[in-house]
Specification:
heterodimer; A: 325 residues; mainly alpha; 14 helices; 72% helix; globular; B: 451 residues; alpha+beta; D-Maltodextrin-Binding Protein, domain 2; 5-stranded mixed sheet; 3-stranded antiparallel sheet; 19 helices; 45% helix
């Protein structure tokens, strides 16, 4: 009996402690996260839900009324060749940008991680383009590629080449790629930080085992920084898929006319979405496009994670991290 | 303290729901308070104007605030996206800048703009006898533009199919100068532009023609000279497959293929014609009288710049306005009286007089016409050409079921493929008709009409 009373008392104490914990500890927890949570609800979840609602209507953005049309916008988008063309261009852009950004960033980081003269200055020079405002960088490139007065054509003229109309036709896609690769220095910084975090004793052990530089890189450095590389692959891919500003800035027109003047070669997905919203006033259709794109990015991200499971090395298993030993 | 172990998934979700509810309730409460004390709060906030900072300048705002301290101005930079958002939220600006030629039907038929008739009938500065007939572009009778109630007022205007030309470029190419009474045809323009275009090594030294684009405004202006129209009588359908419309489209394609001016296939890097015209990189600039304000900035350019009448595609002389920039007052404004008072002050008062004297457009009230600049030769010439041109002014009705930018974008989308030969002009016309009619159909559905 007394044992039973004792057990009851312990259980009661535990419940009281748990209640106190919930009321006290979680209160502080929610107080700390509330700015983020309120921001997420108001600035992310609500707009997402609103865009989802609009995607089922034919709203034009200005009319006081909107009609429910079900999945018609989704069906239209999937049947629209222009949407598939813009998706294809976006995919091409990702294929052109992501590998070069990741590999180039890593290569530069490896070079800048060596003990070379002027290392700090070189690091600063490589990183400098990443801190130039994208608008300034893009407009500068636009001037450099100008057909009639740009430096690129001036350089080509030295070799007797005719001026190239870089900003029209398919060549403007090359300009877009150049503009986007200009900011490769941001990845260099992340890779440098990761490289400096690789335990020196691992390299020492590899050297003692007779590994040459490439073998040490392949078997020690690369696995050690693979989680950082995965992070870059995912964020760069998502960033490239959502590219909008450089393509818009490379438009030959300014102001409200800029979006419709974007050359066809640069009509990537987000440009198409923006045009549907604000040039064609097809808010419902554009919202449907965005939701389809969201699903596509989700699929790409999941595939990347699945593939990376076999290639990324974690010093601590992420599924085990944080668990009580 | 280890907070993490005290938070279960259930309590996390519960807390999140509580916060979300709080946030939503907070939003609702904010809405309640806004609607409750709305009018008083709005009045104290003053007039909200959506316009361009280079038009409603700090000086303009300062002058207004000095005379109307109780109605301060808040300027919102002209931004169609933001306007849509403000309309959707039910809090539009009190005054909105717009192009009367293409936005009247749209904002009037949707009930967004205030009917100004009662204000105009009582106004001493902006009454029917004072207002220039250009203000008719802001009239809408439910079926067509040009008649019915007034839903906005022009601030300055021009006949936008006119163009400016470089007399020296014309003389160098041996081309006769256009005169006020005998406009060029579009075919002549194309031919003359070819003679004045200078290219070498893939670089363009000078284009002969002004920047062109097959916008709905440009096509409508061309069609008007043939007595034709892009829209049907009730403005519910567009047709670009008529012989006249096909001819207008073909002209734009010919210009792009001939490479005698900036087009959508070879866009103007400056975005408008003043910089290349001033730098003698184009021999013609596509703009009406207002361009004289820019010409005044450079005495060298003022020596060779002259204004020409609107070219003709057919035999009927028509010189429309495709903008008639002005303002409409929001039907939901709490400051309608103050907004109209601002229009009186800005359009017909000292501000209007100053603008007229600058040459940046023609005044919207007849009493200010005498203020237009005529001291320099180019100004006197432009004044005379403009005075003659005014008799050919015509209001071209635009459909209320789509926005002009959307219609023009639908046409522009097909243009590069026509220029590179992927589409024939007939296919261009056919597909443009389909695309624009799809937009009109959507607009009609929203207006509760069957397409």
């Amino acid at each position: 009996m007394s044992a039973h009373v004792g057990t009851q008392s312990l259980v009661g104490d535990a419940r009281r402690r748990r209640r106190r914990g919930v009321n006290g500890g979680s209160g502080a927890f929610y107080a700390f996260i509330s700015p983020w949570l309120i921001g997420t609800v108001l600035l992310t979840l609500f707009p997402l839900g609103y865009a989802l609602w609009i995607s089922f209507t034919n709203w034009d953005g200005i009319s006081p009324s909107q009609n429910w049309i079900g999945l018609e916008n989704y069906a239209d988008a999937l049947a629209e060749p222009q949407m598939w063309a813009s998706l294809q261009r976006t995919g091409l852009l990702a294929i052109a940008i992501v590998p070069v950004t990741i590999c180039g960033g890593l290569g530069l980081a490896l070079l800048l991680n060596e003990k070379v003269h002027w290392r700090s200055g070189l690091r600063m020079l490589v990183y400098l383009p990443a801190i130039v405002p994208p608008v300034a960088a893009t407009l500068t490139w636009k001037l450099l590629f100008d057909r009639d007065s740009g430096a690129i054509n001036g350089f080509l003229a030295i070799f007797g080449a005719d001026a190239v109309s870089w900003m029209t036709g398919n060549t403007v896609f090359i300009v877009l790629i150049v503009v986007m690769l200009w900011g490769i220095g941001a990845g260099v910084l992340i890779n440098l930080a990761a490289l400096q975090d690789v335990p020196a004793e691992l390299h020492e052990a590899a050297r003692l085992d007779g590994a040459n530089a490439f073998a040490a890189f392949w078997h020690v450095t690369l696995p050690s920084i693979s989680p950082v590389l995965l992070f870059q692959v995912i964020t760069t891919t998502i960033g490239v898929l959502q590219t909008f500003v450089p393509a818009l800035l490379l438009s030959p027109a300014n102001g409200a006319a800029a979006i419709t003047a974007v050359p066809e070669a640069n009509r990537i997905f987000m440009v198409d979405v923006y045009a549907q919203y604000f040039a064609y006033s097809r808010y419902g259709y554009a919202s449907a496009m965005l939701w389809l794109f969201f699903l596509a990015i989700l699929v790409v991200t999941v595939i990347t994670f699945k593939v990376s499971g076999r290639t990324v090395f974690y010093a601590v298993d992420p599924s085990e991290e944080g668990k009580k030993k | 303290m280890n907070i993490q172990k005290h938070v279960s998934r259930r309590s996390l979700l519960g807390g999140a729901a509580l916060l979300a509810g709080f946030a939503a309730t907070g939003g609702a409460l904010t809405g309640c308070s806004a609607s409750g004390a709305g009018e008083a709060a709005k009045k104290s906030a003053g007039l909200t104007i959506m316009s361009k900072a280079n038009e409603i300048t700090k000086d303009v705002i300062g002058a207004w605030n000095a005379a109307h301290a109780d109605v301060p101005i808040t300027l919102i930079e002209d931004d169609p996206t933001r306007l849509n958002a403000m309309l959707a939220a039910g809090t539009p600006p009190d005054l909105v800048r717009g192009f009367g030629a293409t936005s009247t039907a749209n904002v009037a038929s949707r009930g967004l703009a205030l009917n100004l008739d009662s204000y105009v009938s009582k106004s001493s500065a902006l009454n029917d006898s004072e207002l220039h007939k250009i203000n008719d572009v802001w009239r809408w009778d439910g079926k067509a533009q040009g008649a019915g109630a007034r839903f906005g007022l022009v601030k300055d205007w021009s006949q936008d199919a006119m163009f400016w030309y470089n007399t020296e470029a014309f003389a160098a190419a041996g081309i006769p100068l256009p005169t006020a009474d005998k406009p060029f045809t579009y075919d002549q323009l194309l031919d003359y532009a070819g003679h004045m275009t200078k290219q070498s090594g893939g670089k363009v030294g000078q284009y002969g023609l002004f920047t062109t684009a097959p916008t709905i405004e440009a096509i409508s202006s061309m069609l008007a000279t043939s007595g034709a129209r892009a829209f049907n009588d009730d403005l519910t359908k567009a047709d670009f497959t008529s012989p006249e419309a096909m001819r207008a489209l073909q002209w734009h394609v010919d210009v792009a293929k001939a490479k005698v001016g900036y087009t959508l296939a070879d866009p103007n890097p400056d975005g408008w014609d003043w910089p290349p015209f001033d730098a003698r990189r184009i021999a013609m600039a596509g703009a009406g009288y207002w361009f004289g304000g820019a010409v005044a900035q450079n005495p060298k350019t003022a020596k060779f710049a002259r204004l020409a009448p609107a070219p003709m595609m057919g035999n009927k002389r028509v010189s429309p306005t495709t903008s008639a920039t002005g303002y409409w007052i929001s039907a939901k404004s709490n400051m309608k009286d103050e907004a109209f008072a601002f229009l009186e002050w800005y359009v017909a008062g000292d501000q209007g007089k100053t603008r007229a004297q600058s040459g940046w457009g023609l005044p919207a009230v007849t009493s200010l016409s005498s203020e237009l600049p005529q001291s320099q030769p180019y100004q006197a010439d432009a004044f005379a050409v403009q005075k003659n041109e005014e008799q050919y002014l015509q209001v071209i009705s635009f459909s209320p079921y789509a926005q002009a930018t959307a219609v023009s974008a639908a046409i522009a989308n097909l243009f590069p493929r026509t220029v590179d030969g992927s589409l024939s002009t007939a296919q261009f016309a056919d597909q443009a008709t389909t695309a624009v009619n799809e937009l009109l159909k959507q607009g009609m559905e929203l207006a509760g009409k069957k397409g």
